[in-house]
Structure formats: structure tokens, C-alpha cells
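Bumping with the actual sequence this time:
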Amino acid sequence: MDQQKVFGDFHTILSEGEVWKIGGFPLPDGSFWSYREPEAVVIVRNGILYVRAPLSRQHDKIQILDNAKHMYFSVEDVKVPEQGEVSFEVQIRARTQNTAEGDLYDGYVSWNLLDFSTGAALDFFAGNDKYASVYAVLPFPGVKVPETDKTRYFSIFKEDTNFKPREFNTYQITYNRAKDEVGFYLNGEEVRREREVPVKFNAFTIALGIMTEKDLSPEGSVSVHGQTVIGEWSPVTVTIKEAAAE
């Protein structure tokens, strides 16, 4: 029988550490870098999480810390079954102000599945007029990524405009550990499949975020220039489908 769990309870969003917590990473100097925009407006209404954030946070040296501006991590991780498939589904609405037209990475709404045991990230990014699916293994601060004789760190983006811009769309990501396959779905249609995934993912933290993706320059961060990003997320439904008996 399929197992299902819903990650929502957004009415608890201010009780950080209960269901959701502000994302971020510990730094070598003992401090903690929080993904929290100080002027963010957070509203929970009809079960939907709404965040409107004027972007201001920057990090001049570490790319991952510069990219995410305001982000929530699920307190509970979702363990990946050895056999069968785990599926995650959410509805997201994204709108932006003062972002560069046609440039998704100038400011967008994110939904991330993060495995901090391997550095894996499976994501959907949504902006005003474009969305992207992302498949990555990243050097998260403090995370030990398994060694390999192949490319250890990578991030493969695939952009498309075939969605309902500025409206709610349904995003789904599936992962099959035994088959090493990841599927990405938009509004019920498969839009991408990754086979021969080089890392076995173990457990996912669910993240809801507001981000940019601008390469650091020799002078530091160039990711903030007066943009505002508005994100809305439904609760995330997780379904674990056990493999059928042989």
C-alpha cells in the first residue's frame, strides 16, 4: 500500500523548528548564514504560504550562499525507499518585479529537494515567464559529497516557457533509488527524465525558496539590483510507492 504524507501546516511558519525552519548553513568561523530576507512579508491564507521579498541578501565569496535569499527547510526529512518510488508534488505561483525580462535567474521562486548526505538537489524554479527543472550534486557547506572518478559536482538546468505564467502550476518530482531514475512533471505531463543517476540519494529535505542564480564576479555578488520576488506554495504531498513483490 502506498504511504502518503503532507508537508504543510504553514500556520506554524513563525514557530521555526516545528514543521518548517529558516534554511541556511553553518560557516567555518562558527557563524550561521540564514536564508532570511529582513523585509520579507509572509502571509498564510487558505492553506497557502505567500512570501513577498524585496531582495537584499548577498554573499561575496560562496555561490550557494549568494543564490538563496529567503528559504524554508522542512524539519523532517523524507527517507528514500530502497525499492519502489518516492514522489513529491506541489503547486507554485511565481511573480516578480524589476527582474530582467526573459532572465529566469534574475529572481525566481524555488522548490528544492535537498539530500545533505550526498549534496544532491532536485529542483523546479519558476519565474514570470519561464521555468526550469534542475538536477545537481552541489558543494553545500559542511556536506561531504561522495568521491567518484566521474564529475563530482554538477548542476544541469533545463528551461522551458510551456507553463501558465504568473498562475499556479503543479510540479512533481519522482525518484527511484533502485533504478537510479528521476522524473520531472509539470501539470501532470513528464517534461524530463534523468537516468543512470550517479549518486544514491538517501533522504530529502523539502525546501521552499526565493532565489537568484547569478555567478559571482571577481568583485563579489552581482545578484541584487532592486528586484522583488513573490512566491506562493501549496502544501507538499509526498507519496512512497513500495515495489511490487516479485
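The C-alpha cells above came from a reply further down the thread. Residues 134 and 157 are 5 Å apart (CA to CA).
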